[in-house]
Amino acid sequence: MKKLTLLIAFLFLTVLSVKAQDSPFQKIMKKEIEKLVESDSLARFQESANAFTRIAALNPSEWQPLYYQALACTYQGLSSKLSPDKRDEALLKAEDLVRKAEALSTSNSEIIALKGFITMAKVNIDPAGRGQSLSGTALTEFSKSLAVDSNNPRALILMAQMEAGIARFFGSGTEKACSLAKQSMAIFAAQDEAALKAEMKPTWGRNLAEKMSKSCE
């Protein structure tokens, strides 16, 4: 009886071990996400975008490769090393990818927040010419993201940055922006980042929250 009990326990643990193993899709995604997080140049952003393009082609029913490819393109669109036309080109690509991701995962707070981030990047190219027409659009996207998940720290810190920019433009106070930044930082601090990475969930944005929270002190 004791041997039978040990055998059952061994088989149970074996099943759990198999279930815990990452699929090939998960393994390559985690590897490429880590590379993107560590990227600090246009060349590396392009490498990440290319990698996620290949992964998306092999996994057409998954939204994450499209999301991270769009994020890599957005980072390119924020680079002052590119001409405004090239930055716009990268952001148009990001928008197309986000639409495809949203078709696979509707009402996704992370995808909606990324849409707002792309709009922010567009404003960044020409603040004087685009701020008035696009700032409201970005804020609306962040509000929609928070309506789906009120604890999305990326939506909060990006909204905080938009509010701070608007406050500087009109010469008003940054109390609202700082409040949002501190909310974001508190959520980032309480998160289990390792668990989020294991599930391929976004973790980026903490550095933005830390920087802005410090500037608000």
Q: How are the secondary structure elements laid out?
A:
Layout: H1 2-20, H2 24-38, H3 42-58, H4 64-77, H5 84-104, H6 109-125, H7 127-148, H8 153-170, H9 175-190, H10 193-198, H11 206-215
Helix pairs in contact: 2-3, 3-4, 4-5, 4-6, 5-6, 6-7, 6-8, 7-8, 8-9, 8-11, 9-11
Shape: globular
How many individual domains?
A: 2
Average pLDDT, rounded to a whole number, is 91
User: Total number of β-strand segments?
Assistant: 0
Work out the helix count: 11
Which assembly state applies to the chains in this document? single chain
Radius of gyration: 20 Å
Topology as a string of helices (H) and strands (E) = HHHHHHHHHHH
Write a structural description:
The chain is mostly helical and 217 residues long. The chain folds into 2 domains: 26-106, no CATH class; 128-217, no CATH class. Helix content is 81%, strand content 0%. It has 11 helices and no strands. It has helices at residues 2-20, 24-38, 42-58, 64-77, 84-104, 109-125, 127-148, 153-170, 175-190, 193-198, 206-215. α2 runs antiparallel to α3 (42-58). The radius of gyration is 20 Å and the shape is globular. The protein starts with a helix and ends with a helix.
